[in-house]
Amino acid sequence: MQDSHQRIYAAIAAIPRGRVASYGAIAVRAGLPGRARLVGKLLGKTPADMPLPWHRVLRASGQIALPPGSRGFREQCRLLRAEGIEVHQGRVPLSRFGLDGNLDRQLWGML
DNA sequence: GCTTTGACGTATG
DNA sequence: TCATACGCCAAAG
Predict the structure, then answer these.
(1) What would be the CATH architecture of the domain defined by A3-108?
(2) What is d(CA A13, CA A56) in angstroms, rounded to the nearest whole number?
(3) Which nucleotide has the least CA–C1' distance to A104?
């Protein structure tokens, strides 16, 4: 197991219940800025039976990354809603569920 | 070893 | 808000 993978898993596992984080944010927390794709790649290869809150990981836009209508897509929606997170048209309002809405600003040096 | 691919992100128009 | 372009890089072919 690569060290980077370990850190990515740890970063995902650290997302609080009822909150979501973007691939980019996960990459940063894993010490891999700019490697959002690596996070996605890893999740894609990760078996579904892995005890990881993968469903809390979305695109920076709040869009669910999986193909709409696919198995995983529906599963993700279900899991998110089960935590009280709103999902409309495959999207989550980051203004309310995106890690207190502070991580992104923290990352991009805004405000 | 070169090319393609991917659960992505930002900038620009 | 949508589209297009480019950056990123580990794996797979």
Answers:
(1) Orthogonal Bundle (1.10)
(2) 9
(3) B9
pLDDT in tens, A44-72: 987 777 889 999 999 999 999 999 999 99
Domain residue ranges of chain A, discontinuous segments joined by +: 3-108
At residue A68, the 3 state secondary structure works out as: coil
Q: Which nucleotides of B are covered by protein (CB under 7 A)?
A: 6-10
Chain C footprint bases within 7 A of protein beta carbons: 7-12
Distance A61 CA to B11 C1' (A): 15
For residue A3, what is the enclosing H or E element? helix A3-13
For A102, the token pair is 């502070």
Q: Would you say the C-beta of A88 is within 7 Å of strand C?
A: no
